[in-house]
Write a structure and sequence with these properties.
Blueprint lengths: L2 E2 L4 E2 L15 H9 L10 E6 L4 H11 L6 E2 L12 H7 L8 H9 L2 E6 L13 H21 L4 E4 L4 E3 L1 H13 L3 H12 L1 E6 L2 E5 L8 E5 L5 H17 L11 E2 L8 E6 L16 E6 L1
Parallel strand pairs: 10-13
Antiparallel strand pairs: 1-2, 2-11, 3-5, 3-6, 4-5, 6-7, 8-9, 9-10, 11-12, 12-13
Length: 294
């Protein structure tokens, strides 16, 4: 048994030990799946609210700030009208974690809804090793576009591709952190906090949504034991391992995971994302890693 510190993934018996040449780790399976010429990479779609928004200005700011990711205004779905569903939509997108009274008032007072999105990308247009770096840069551009729009007259922003909304100050802070990041690990940490929604509860499951926008599988914890903080710690530690450690590409079903050497052991299992239809913006073509008690 070999420890991979500091993330505490340990090697256990897998079908590879029995000489099965077709058995492989989840990440290599994922790269093969993304090599499908018809596979579109996940793309961010931003819902932008404001009062008297100038859609030409919105499109210009998005295109200039998000040029590297090809951000454009979706003229078909953008509307100059109040949408009464927005208060509920923002509340369901965890806005309460960082929204101020002024943020909620801005949502209530909006009379314009604009949508901006990055250009579509297909997996076959780049080598597999560039998929994650490309999506990380698109996510950094998404933060920059969100902040630029808020500084240019927009009053609230929600990411439709992961169901996450932040308050104005939180968006601006995250964008500044991402712009200042000097290492891949630092950038991944900022983008994870900005992009990934967790924990989402469904029965015995606590899971994440949004890792597809960072080029990695989502994570799930299958248990009803422990408190929310403990579950979030487990989800976060595994997710950041997937994003920052190249050894995550060697993970395979049946291997073990621990937070510390003396903490409980969990078993890893890679599964396809069957929670969302393939055309759902939340769908993760990379699937997810499930943790179950050993």
């Amino acid at each position: 048994m070999t420890w991979l510190t500091p993330q505490r993934v340990e090697r256990g018996w897998t079908s590879r030990d029995a000489g099965d040449p077709t058995a492989d780790g989840g990440c290599r399976y994922v790269l093969a799946m993304l090599a499908d010429p018809d596979q579109l990479l996940p793309r961010p779609v931003l819902c932008v609210l404001g009062a008297g928004l100038d859609f030409d200005a919105v499109g210009r700011v998005a295109a200039e700030t998000g040029a590297a990711a090809g951000f454009t205004l979706d003229e078909e779905y953008s509307e100059r009208a109040h949408d009464p569903r927005m208060s509920y939509a923002f509340e369901a997108s965890l806005a309460g974690a960082s929204f101020t009274d002024a943020d909620w008032a801005a949502v209530e007072a909006h009379d314009s809804v604009a949508y901006v999105l990055s250009r579509p990308l297909r997996a076959f247009t780049m080598p597999p090793q560039m998929l994650r770096p490309t999506l990380l840069e698109v996510s950094r551009a998404t933060l920059a576009v969100s902040a630029a729009l808020l500084r240019s007259g927009a009053t609230a922003v929600k990411n439709e591709s992961n169901g996450v909304a932040h308050g104005r100050d939180r968006w601006l802070s995250l964008a500044d952190e991402a712009a200042a990041a000097t290492t891949d690990a630092e950038l991944a940490g900022v983008l994870y906090r900005a992009t990934v929604k967790r924990p989402i509860r469904a029965g015995q499951s606590s899971y994440s949504c949004g890792m597809h926008l960072l080029g990695a599988p989502d994570v799930e914890l299958l248990t009803t034991d422990g408190g929310v903080e403990e579950r979030v710690t487990l989800l976060d530690t595994l997710a950041l391992y997937l994003l920052t450690d190249e050894r995550a590409a060697e993970m395979a079903d049946g291997e073990g995971f621990r937070l510390t050497a003396d903490s409980p052991r969990w078993l890893l299992e890679h599964r396809p994302d069957d929670r969302h239809e393939t055309d759902d913006l939340f769908h993760n073509p990379l699937g997810y890693w499930r943790l179950t008690p050993a």
